[in-house]
Amino acid sequence: MNAQEGEPWQYFPETGHNVSGDFWKFYQETPGAAFLFGSPITEQFTDTRSGRLVQYFQRTRFELYPENPADERVLRSPLGELVFQRTPPKGTVDSSNPLGCRFYPETGFSLCYAFLEFFDRNGGEAMFGKPISAFVFHNDRIVQYFQGARFDWYPEYPEGQKVVLAQLGRIYFDLVPEDAGRLLPVKAENTPGDIQTIQARIFTRKALTLGDDQQVLYVVVQDQTLNPVPGASTVVTVTWADDQKVTFAQSTNDRGVVILPVTVTGQKHGSLIMVETEAIFMGLSAKGRTSFRVWK
Fold it and tell me: For 92-105, how does the pLDDT look when each residue is reduced to its tens digit (9 = 90+)?
């Protein structure tokens, strides 16, 4: 399926949500993604706390870092840590046995028995992070928290299925709390298909600055009909006179605009400061460039 030409996406009828762009690429490239992440429970949206593009799944949350290298643009939120901080356990289970456990000195906890087998079989530390708790009780079940997950023990389930990945995506969504309206299913054809291309323009408030001054950069992202594109991820790179670079990442507001204050420090008279931006939205991208000069 394609939400728009050139952009892969997939509709999940079981939850009524779409995954597209970098998020869908990451999902497809992760072995066992349906089991490890579950299905999407929201569309992608801009998190007002971080300014990042995010999307919730049943067991995880994706975050977009467009300023990172291509294979590191999508990261998963450390939901194990975030949920553990908000839901203190009610008692621990003494199950220490060095013969059946692996100790993690970085966190001070061990991983044991069926949890250890499940951990190694399904991606290990790269997928779940390190253990951050002992065996603890949650809702009368034995569980263990990891940086990015929680393992739950269901002794009544068949052999090989007794360890269950908690649905931390939905749990954290409710704990924050996020807008419950984002959980409402959408139709596949509701994926933004009318945006075929985007363009990014960048402007400076001042054409000339002092060597020590305040500058403001404006990024405007529009579609092919010049309508604003809210929620586009932008990366702005400022190249100073000595070729040192500084990078800023921010999403466009409801008017398709990013307003970015920048401090100018120690720049020499006559220097030309180059400014570039890249905007990304639903698999589409566009670049823009401008400059300003240091006059005094």
Answer: 776 556 677 999 99
Residue keyed to tokens 């061990």: 110
On whether both 104 and 239 belong to a single domain, the answer is no
Residues 231 and 267 in one domain: yes
Which pTM does this prediction carry? 0.68
Task: Quote the domain boundaries for residue 235.
Answer: 198-294
Position 162 in a domain: yes
H, E, C per residue of 50-80: CCCEEEEECCCEEEECCCCCHHHCEEECCHH
pLDDT of residue 94: 65
Residue where the block lists tokens 């949920």: 83
Name, in order, each residue with C-beta under 8 angstroms of 158's C-beta and a sequence gap of 6 or more: none
In whole angstroms, what is the distance from residue 131 CA to residue 147 CA? 6
Query: 4 vs 37, which has greater pLDDT?
Result: 37
H or E element at residue 174: helix 168-175
